[in-house]
Amino acid sequence: MPLAVEFSQVEFGYLPGQPVLRDVELGIEAGEFVAIAGPNGGGKTTLLRLALGLERPTRGEVRLFGEPADSFRDRAGLGYLAQRTHLGVQAPATVREVVAAGRCARKPFGRFTRGDDDAVERAIERVGLGELRNRPLTRLSGGQQQRAFIAKALAAEPRLLALDEPTTGVDVESQEALAELLARLHSELGVTILYVSHEFGAIENVVERLVLVRERIVFDGSPSALPELWHDPSHAHA
Amino acid sequence: MLDLEFMRLAFAAGAIVGVVAPVVGFFLVQRQMSLIGDGIGHVAFAGVAAGYLIGISPVWTALAAAIIGAVGIEWLRAHKQAAGDQALALVFYTGIAGGVVLISAAGALNANLFSYLFGSILTVTRRDLLTIALLGFASLVVVAVLLRALLAVSIDEEGARVAGLPVPILNAVVSMLAALTIGISMRIVGILLIAALMVLPVIAAQRIAWSLRSTMGLSILVGLASVLAGLTVSYYGDLPPGGTIVLAATGFFLASSATEFVRARV
Asked: What's the gap in Å between the CA of B32 and the closest CA on chain A?
């Protein structure tokens, strides 16, 4: 069975001669829950974008479930929560409308089938927003909005869930609730989760594996094996 | 008023425009591209001028110019040759400058030109109505078929890209629909004011709506009511319909803002 994500000798830079990432060698098994951490500007978001095929490596190769990431075919199987996700629309979109937009990856045109509607409802229930399904997102707390976007990513029943800085601007309680939610989704659905964050916070207690990035991968292993000093991501390169 | 053939034609064409403009404008407003209609409208002005100069119907040259303008704006945005507002400014000013030069060269600075700029209730022919109905219906069918994908891109463009939706094509479709809407609306509302009919009903509706679906429904109602009220005032006041229609839409915007204000305090 192919790896969910595979980086082979990857180098990448937005400008010639200024690599953001180099010598990246990384393999993530299907079903793993991995946190990718590191200081701001260390290349962790770039690593996620390469993994999703949003960027092409300058050198080396990135594969998603055995296929080149930038030409990966089953893109509906990728759930993605972008950095500082906010509602693109100005009109009052309800939780259900936002989550249904995620199902669009499986059914972009025409009317939803009963199966599509059920998938949307299941995603809403999984994140605990069932009673708020008809409420506009703008009338929810930051934590609830974040859960709605996770439900959106789940609505297409993805194989890989990628979250980029999902706790930015969210209070500590919501961060802990999010970590618990992701741990539950991981055990219930067996989905591969890539969680990018500049801080470990509550997520450290629920991930199986931690990858620290600062231009290169400087640590890859269990969070418990990480030296105490390195728990501060700014020392990740020390 | 409806005993008169030209008023029946104007109302029929206006009703179609009143529905289509807010439906297309909904996606422009959500993408924070409210002014794109203005940019395309000004290119359409150059198209009208070109029509006068080369001696063919300005309606078709304006439609062709609007489509070229829409494609140009989207290309500049998509290829990051210019930020969204800069792309718009470039097309906007080039369009109006080209229009002024061409219209002067054609010696067509006359009242007929004003009917294209600000609309006229006298100029809609049966043939125009048929064209407006066909293109308007086609626009609505395109939106209905692509509705979910267009909403997904509006809600989260990056997420839609990751999920494999053809985002550049969908964005280009919205711009093309805006160009078509301008083409079919210029006889009634006029090139310089049609963008307002795409935007004002939507921003009026979303102040009091409770979902995306209700926003679109209310936008259509406001658009339709604005056109019908504006045409009526235009007829009795002998005023250009573009102005009266847009002022009616502004009235609906003020009314919905007042409703929102009161609701927030009750």
From this structure: 8
- Is residue B163 predicted with pLDDT exceeding 50? yes
For residue A153, the surrounding DSSP H or E stretch is helix A142-154
Range of weakest confidence among A101-105, A159-163, B78-82: B78-82
C-alpha B142, offset from chain centre: 16
Which one of A80, A109, A149 has the shortest CB-CB distance to B145?
A: A109
Please report which confidence band the pLDDT of residue B57 belongs to, taking 50, 70 and 90 as the band edges: confident
Q: Does B208 touch chain A (CB under 8 A)?
A: no
What's the CA gap between B65 and B71, in Å, rounded? 10
Question: Does A52 contact B at CB distance below 8 Å?
Answer: yes
Indicate whether B91 pLDDT > 50: yes
Tokens 């079919």 belong to which residue? Answer: B184
Closest-CA distance, A108 to chain B, in angstroms, reads: 5
Tens of pLDDT, residues A39-85: 888 888 899 999 999 899 999 999 999 999 988 988 888 998 887 66
Contact present, A101 and B152 (Cβ < 8 Å) = yes
CA angle A34, A36, A40 (to 5 degrees): 165
A98: chain B residues, CB-CB within 8 Å: 155
Q: Is this complex's ipTM strictly greater than 0.90?
A: no
Query: Which of B31, B205, B212 lies nearest to residue A93, judging by beta carbons?
Result: B212
CB of A100 closer than 8 Å to CB of A149 = no
Interchain contact B206–A (C-beta under 8 A): yes
Q: Give me the helix-helix angle, A95-103 and A142-154, nearest 10°.
A: 30
Q: Exposed (0-12), middle (13-18) or buried (19+): which is A189, by Cβ within 10 Å?
A: middle
Q: Answer yes or no: are the C-beta atoms of B121 and B241 closer than 8 Å.
A: yes
Rounded to whole angstroms, the Cα distance separating A104 from A155 reads 9
- For residue range A152-167, list pLDDT tens digits in order: 999 988 999 999 888 7
Q: Is residue A84 less than 8 Å (CB to CB) from chain B?
A: no
Residue type present at position A33: F
> Regarding beta strands A160-164 and A192-197, do their DSSP bridges make them parallel or antiparallel, or are they unpaired?
parallel
Interface test with A, best of B33, B154, B156 (most A CBs within 10 A): B156
DSSP secondary structure letter of residue A111: P
Measured CA to CA, the distance from residue B245 to residue A60 in angstroms comes to 59
**Which two structure tokens, joined as six digits, stand for B248?**
């009616």
CB contact under 8 A, A136 and B210: yes
The amino acid that residue A217 corresponds to is I
- Residue A139: which pLDDT band, with cuts at 50, 70 and 90? confident
